[in-house]
Amino acid sequence: MLAFRELESSNLYAGLGVQLIDEFASVPSASFDAPPLGWTTIEIDFDDGGGVYRALDPTSLVSMRTPSGVVWYPWLERHADARLLAARNYRVRVSAGLYAPRYAYDSDGVVVAVSPYDDNNPPATIAAAPAKIMLLPTATYPFASAIPVLRGLIVDTSNVPVPDALVSWIDATLQTDSVLSDADGEFALPMRRAAINTPIDIHAERPGLAGDTIIRIPQDLSIFHTIQIS
Question: What 8-state DSSP symbol labels residue 121?
Fold first, then answer.
């Protein structure tokens, strides 16, 4: 169901909220969503009615940030008369210094439909949750020194670096970590809970492409690995 949070005025609603989450540092079992480190930016695009997304001028966007770090946009789809208007799609795009958004694996952003409203007609649907955008570490993420980290490069069959490839280590019995390769195709994959001196499958993929390599830790942590996907 679509989400709206009612603000201080009874006729002002926020149809779009965004929460950025550091997936690596979060603890789902404790319902803890870790805020991101370093700088982040949120950009909002709107559907022009023909399926083409156009960027909103960030200087014209009114936003409110809660103590928990959620950013709400209360003026989207507020009209003088909203009775005959349909919901409009908005696309959220995120940039960050230490992360890549998980959605970048297969899309350009997260799309949220926002229903129109006016002073006399509230939005058709009301909910309370923001869009949660998971952020995955890139090669510049400051992992703690105690965490084993495998570093490498993702390339295609022409040895061209591949950005936004999802890289994971595979173990059916453990919670493992995933990261995205950066704009240069490089990745830094944390190996928390990985077994010592045991073959571990490192899997990389983009939509329609995949590749693997087998490593052992700690001996292979000192090697810069190249994984080709095809």
Answer: S
Pairing mode, strands 131-137 and 16-27? parallel
Of the candidates 168, 150, 171, 162, the residue with the CA atom closest to the CA atom of residue 208: 162
In one letter, which amino acid is 5? R
Per-domain residue ranges of the chain = 5-136, 149-228
| Residue 131, φ and ψ in degrees, nearest 5 | -75, 120
> Which tokens go with 228?
């080709």
Q: Are 62 and 73 in contact (CB under 8 A)?
A: yes
Q: What confidence tens digit (pLDDT) does each residue in 6-39 have?
A: 544 456 677 899 999 999 999 988 999 999 999 9
Residue recorded with tokens 């000192």 = 222
The CATH classification number of 149-228 equals 2.60.40.1120
User: 3-state DSSP call for residue 40?
Assistant: strand
Q: Is pTM, for the whole model, over 0.85? A: yes
> How, if at all, do strands 225-228 and 149-155 pair?
parallel
Tens digits of per-residue pLDDT, 28-87? 889 999 999 999 999 999 999 888 999 999 888 888 899 989 999 988 888 899 999 999
- With contact defined as beta carbons under 8 Å apart, do 155 and 165 qualify? no
Among 225, 116, 124, residue whose Cα is nearest residue 181: 225
Residue with tokens 């040895």: 159
Task: Tell whether the model's pLDDT for residue 92 goes beyond 90.
Answer: yes
